[in-house]
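Need a sequence for this fold. Nothing fancy.
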């Protein structure tokens, strides 16, 4: 004898509730493990998903609220607040002093982009990069074929340093302005090149812009996580106080990990995206939950961030990160 329609509907609702509750439990477990991000690489990896945890907990919040379970409602709200809290500064506009707003300083644009090692749409990818008309371009996962492709834009970017590699460690730095100095810094537990470059400011200023461009390997495991952290720490120590400093690249580290804040403090840097939202830069699995924010432009306080945005690129799972900034003379 078939079950009454009301009973069938009730069973279906119960199944949905159980599924949403299990998803909520997963988000709670992930949130708890992320508490240990400072001491273990798994906690660090799971900390990058804190925005996703907050989203996954919303249906669970609705369920416990409807059932008027005050204790569980408070607990779920607590976990949502824990995961949302670090994102708040990214939605608060960064105010500049009236003095800095009146300065008519030269503006520059820097672009950082992981082109993806398996991407072979060289001409189309380069066209998207050129459309942004950046003064400085840092590319990652640059394979050997990029050598000839980038040589084709030497009239536009006469200063180029291309360190191509068929694996993940190939990088390239392009500049419209001839640099004063450039050093290739080998860091990490593998031969992983970073580029440390000083570029003279345009105009009569005698100041130089210091840009460090890097791409630590993905921190899958304790060794690679330690290597990434050591690499970032060493680079942060290279910055000179009172010199306009920028650090750019796919850092394989999100702002939601406590290790990110520790690194910023070490280098006396700020995230250029503060006040511009939490747009993700890596979307390996296009879902409604979105990706993670691992590509960055970090600046010191002597630089004024004029604009920050990311742009989807058709042939990579990363987005281009583009920042307009100026230097006080």
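Here you go.
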């Amino acid at each position: 004898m078939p079950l009454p329609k009301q009973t069938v509907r009730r069973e279906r609702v119960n199944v949905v509730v159980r599924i949403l509750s299990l998803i909520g439990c997963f988000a709670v477990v992930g949130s708890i493990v992320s508490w240990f991000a400072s001491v273990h690489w798994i906690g660090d990896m799971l900390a990058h998903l804190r925005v996703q945890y907050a989203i996954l907990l919303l249906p669970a919040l609705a369920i416990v609220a409807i059932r008027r379970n005050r204790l569980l409602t408070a607990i779920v709200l607590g976990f949502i607040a824990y995961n949302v809290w670090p994102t708040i500064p990214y939605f608060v506009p960064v105010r500049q002093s009236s003095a800095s707003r009146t300065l008519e300083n030269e503006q520059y644009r820097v672009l950082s982009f992981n082109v993806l090692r398996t991407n072979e749409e060289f001409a189309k990818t380069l066209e998207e990069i050129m459309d942004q008309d950046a003064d400085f371009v840092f590319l990652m996962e640059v394979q050997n074929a990029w050598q000839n492709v980038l040589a084709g834009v030497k009239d536009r970017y006469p200063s180029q340093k291309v360190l191509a590699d068929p694996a993940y460690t190939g990088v390239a730095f392009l500049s419209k302005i001839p640099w004063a100095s450039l050093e290739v810094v080998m860091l990490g537990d593998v031969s992983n090149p970073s580029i440390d470059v000083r570029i003279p400011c345009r105009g009569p200023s005698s100041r130089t812009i210091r840009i460090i461009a890097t791409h630590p390997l993905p921190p899958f495991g304790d060794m690679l996580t330690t290597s990434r952290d050591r690499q970032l720490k060493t680079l942060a120590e290279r910055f000179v106080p009172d010199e306009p400093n920028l650090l750019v690249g796919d850092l394989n580290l999100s702002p939601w990990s406590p290790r990110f804040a520790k690194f910023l403090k070490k280098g006396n840097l700020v995230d250029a995206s503060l006040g511009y939202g939490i747009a993700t830069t890596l979307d390996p699995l296009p879902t409604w939950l979105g990706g993670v924010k691992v590509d960055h432009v970090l600046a010191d306080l002597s630089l004024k961030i004029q604009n920050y945005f990311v742009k989807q690129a058709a042939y990579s799972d990363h987005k281009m990160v583009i920042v307009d900034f100026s230097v006080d003379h």
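For context: The chain has two domains: 5-89, 96-327.
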